[in-house]
Design goal:
The protein is α/β, with parallel strands linked by helices and 293 residues long. It is built from twelve helices and eleven strands. Strand 1 and strand 2 form a beta hairpin.
Length: 293
Amino acid sequence: MELSQLKVFSSAAQTLNFTKTADQLFITQPAVSYQIKSLEEEFGVRLFARDSNRIKLTPAGEELQSYVAELLELTFAIESRMHGISIGMEQRLKIAAIRSTTDELMGCVSVFSQNYPAVQVDVSIMEAREMTNSIAQLEYDIYFATERMFIGSNTIDTLPIRTSSIQVFAHRKYAEEIDPNDWSTIRALPFVMINHSDVILYNTILEICKNRGFLPNVVSYGNRPESMLVLVSTGIGIAMLPIEILMVHNSPDIMTFPLEGQDARLNYVFGWKKSNYSKAIHHFRETFEHMYR
């Protein structure tokens, strides 16, 4: 088993098309077939089921895919870090952030990288569910996220970044019907909801509604705030979303209505792991405090 074979398998497992895999990897289609056949012979299992029209992963292929994904990710991390060391980057700092904190993230990274050029800075922008999982597993050194994502964690310290809010988003056709001080004007309207994959926002929205004495009349779901905004802009229903979403996606047909109460507040925080508190983490924290405290 060679790394090149696993790269071919990984590509084929994603495309389910040997010709597309060959194009992606700049090799011939017979070379792809040969590499896959060699792996199957070495492992003694079929990795792909083939017919005249298409291929698909076998159960063994599906299981191998998960292992290969982890291995290739680790291989990339090793190659990246060894390259960093070879060009004089003595330390590495891994940072994770959600999209709504990218302004603060960019500001800190810009100043930090100028002051500490010998530190390799790697950044991952994550969706909410990925972020909460990462925090639970303590995969990164620095986090830019919402305070609620750190609930239950005793391995990370935090400092506040800023406070924002969740507001009601509605198409103009609903605007005259809505009075945020009179929830009877909202509870009957069709509602667009985030799906369960974003557990933090999902639970926050439900909490807001329950605290005001109703359950939303959900007619449609979105997997991300951006997709919910698309549904709202078409008039399918109203939604509750962080106001920052308008910085990325705005529409003249959408109006927003502020919500009163602590439950509608979003506190963004800067977090760092307590264990293995390195000089790089210390200097990045100093950079953050100098800029935002």
